[in-house]
């Protein structure tokens, strides 16, 4: 694997910038990663299993296709159109924290409706991606078979939705990375000072990354070697 | 003058963090501390855990953005509760020096993705005695994506691209936007 080809040339040189240097404001900057949550689905005993199975599968596949197409088309259409958003936000003063910023240039992701929809259905999509493509088959489409063809899905009541030890594993993994963030060596660099805010310090050890690629390759080789 | 808003996020130990954590997982599996098969068998509870955790974290982030001295993202400060919650209200939220956005994007998520992939491959091998070609391709390509993301983390963020429209949709061209920096 040609890691050298992926290497960023000189990170420190491009990272540090004179505080006074004019820079186009990133006022359209936002986190578009979809962090949503959803409480584990409870099994409804009252509904017959087969009916529940169909309903659940339908809602999963529906929400899967809908939210994927909606979020993809909206995000591509709105956020990737080159100029309008930054240009529009350039002409308006950035809302100060105290003003509450009631005015807004444009909504993305379909505005509040799209935001609600994605927030609520994304967890379903995650479950669906896991359940609808399993070792017995994958979700398919066939006109001859009347549309969506579902693979065998385990009975919902037989699925273990929640385990405390799994939650601990998740937290442990998260905590491990918090520890690594601070334990691993790295340089400190400073970012761009914004108006009224001091430059924030950054820890950089990416320069050493080329040397650290070697243990990675060893892990890679041993990992694949161990598996195959 | 416009306030200069930067991404202001970079503790670039991502690549070494990946090396170390993957090595720890491999070591733990090797010495029998745990079995990576656990991930395969407990994927649904792990998904539930991640969903609950991210929901809780999102609510915390939304609420904490109302604290004093927070820098707000212009696009996420509309006054509409659900929209601001969804887009993200505070710009580059930090707890002390701990930058949540960069951290959550790169560390547990991306590296965890690679580990999950290898767990699935391990289970396939343990069950069928073979790792399928498609599995190997998934492993290769997705691991390249992960390594590329962490390797080029290198603090491209603060200069990355206020100019480039590619940065506006980083998911479509992460390495491209980073390389331009």
Describe the structure.
The complex is a heterodimer of chains A (228) and B (181). With 228 residues, chain A is mainly alpha-helical. In chain A, 47% of the residues lie in helices and 8% in strands. A two-stranded antiparallel ribbon of chain A has the order 1-2. A two-stranded antiparallel ribbon of chain A has the order 3-4. Chain A has a two-stranded antiparallel sheet with strand order 5-6. Chain B has 181 residues and is mostly helical. Helices cover 58% and strands 3% of the residues of chain B. In chain B, strands 2-3 form a two-stranded antiparallel sheet. In chain B, β2 (94-95) and β3 form a beta hairpin. Classes of the chains: A mainly alpha (228), B mainly alpha (181). At the A-B interface, α2, α3, α4, α5 and α6 of A face β1, α1, α3, α4 and α5 of B.
Series of secondary-structure elements of chain B, N-terminal to C-terminal: EHHHHEEHHH
Radius of gyration of chain A: 24 Å
Largest sheet of chain A: 2 strands, antiparallel
Which outline of chain A best applies? extended
How many domains in all of chain B?
1
One letter per element, helices H and strands E, the order of chain A comes to HHHHHEEEEHEEH
Separate helix tally of chain B: 7
Rg value of chain B: 19 Å
SSE inventory with pairings:
The complex is a heterodimer of chains A (228) and B (181).
Chain A lengths: L2 H4 L4 H5 L33 H31 L4 H8 L19 H21 L1 E2 L2 E2 L1 E3 L4 E3 L14 H20 L3 E4 L10 E4 L4 H19 L1
Antiparallel strand pairs in A: 1-2, 3-4, 5-6
Helix pairs in contact in A: 3-5
Chain B lengths: L10 E2 L1 H17 L6 H5 L1 H22 L16 H7 L6 E2 L2 E2 H29 L4 H19 L22 H6 L2
Antiparallel strand pairs in B: 2-3
